[in-house]
Amino acid sequence: MINEILDLALIESGKLSLSLEPISLAEVMHECQDMIEPQAKKRGISVAFPRFEISYFVKADRTRVKQVLINLLSNAIKYNKVGGTVVVDCIASDPGRIRICVEDTGEGLTPEKLTQLFQPFNRLGQEANFEEGTGIGLVVCKRLIEWMGGVIGVESTVGKGSVFWIEMNLTAAPEGAAHAADATAAAPAQVQADAQLRTLLYVEDNPANLMLVEDLIARRPDIRLLSARDGNRGIEIARASLPDVILMDINLPGISGIRALKILAEDPTTAHIPVVALSANAMPHDIEKGLEAGFFRYLTKPIKVHEFMDTLDVALDFAKMAAARAARKEQA
Ligand code: MN
């Protein structure tokens, strides 16, 4: 608990540095299994780990990714029913992404508890009987995973149990002869956390557009980019990580960007987030329709760098003011 508070303080003050390198998931999972087994045995909980047919690598900080997994595993054991089970699963979901799920057979969480789960502890303090120790740990997990370019989320059914998951980008296995690789690639990237860090979620099915936006956002150390390849995944990530701003393509596989916007606007947890449309539909009536649907701004492709950056800043400012307003309302 103390360590977690220190971690959170480190993260919030911008003093945490992560060393990102390709990590073998099978290896990390094996280490976690060894660490968690005594705790599981003591509580009479059986834990099933996945067997890896393929060796998956994620770009992560080894210590920190283990910290997150141990935290999820430890909660799944601690808040399980007597004689319960924990099932760990790895699913290569989207191309290039992997999801690690930790499923328990505990009591499950009510929707109210779910919305508070990843909030910093000053807000959790309002919940009198929230199990001590879970909240702060999960806040740290969320920050760490997002720093490594991942997403954390949870699905829960009261009376049945919860599934906590993290999703990360897959990366190539390190070269057999690591020293032969060029120096910049071999050196672990140092990531400096920043107290002012903002989150942008980009929902886009076109990899070229995503790459361009990734490049643009790479120039902005104050913005962290999350992405989703379709509307439903976008909604899922928006609910899980509550980004400051969402950038939404209109023509998406499955539901359209307009439909996704409506779902986000109807959900009280995401309704406050400004959603900027970014679409190839550039006719005046397309733009009008988009703004009518409730988009914060409507940008057209091809992306114009200045317009894009300016709009992003306006949306981020708007988000900051909305957050300040909400905080004042909460105080009153
Ligand atoms: Mn599209």
Task: Write the CATH architecture name of the largest domain.
Answer: 2-Layer Sandwich
- What is the count of distinct domains? 2
Strand order of the largest sheet: 2-4-5-7-6
Distinct small molecules bound, one entry per kind: manganese (II) ion
Q: What is the fourth-level CATH superfamily of the largest domain?
A: Histidine kinase-like ATPase, C-terminal domain
CATH class of the largest domain: Alpha Beta
Tally the helices: 12
Portion of residues in helices? 40-55%
Explained architecture:
This protein folds into two domains: 2-169, 2-Layer Sandwich (Heat Shock Protein 90); 181-331, Rossmann fold. It is built from twelve helices and 13 strands. 44% of the residues lie in helices and 23% in strands. The two termini are 31 Å apart. The protein has helices at 2-12, 25-43, 62-78, 111-116, 121-124, 134-147, 183-186, 207-218, 231-241, 257-266, 284-293, 305-331, and strands at 17-24, 46-48, 57-60, 85-91, 97-104, 151-157, 161-169, 189-192, 198-203, 223-228, 245-248, 275-279, 297-300. It has a five-stranded mixed beta sheet.
Task: Throw out a few tags for this protein.
332 residues, alpha/beta, Heat Shock Protein 90, five-stranded mixed β-sheet, 12 helices, 13 strands, binds manganese (II) ion
Outline:
With 332 residues, this protein is an alpha/beta fold. The protein is built from 12 helices and 13 strands.
Chain-wise SSE layout:
Elements: H1 2-12, E1 17-24, H2 25-43, E2 46-48, E3 57-60, H3 62-78, E4 85-91, E5 97-104, H4 111-116, H5 121-124, H6 134-147, E6 151-157, E7 161-169, H7 183-186, E8 189-192, E9 198-203, H8 207-218, E10 223-228, H9 231-241, E11 245-248, H10 257-266, E12 275-279, H11 284-293, E13 297-300, H12 305-331
Parallel strand pairs: 2-4, 9-10, 9-11, 11-12, 12-13
Antiparallel strand pairs: 1-3, 1-8, 4-5, 5-7, 6-7
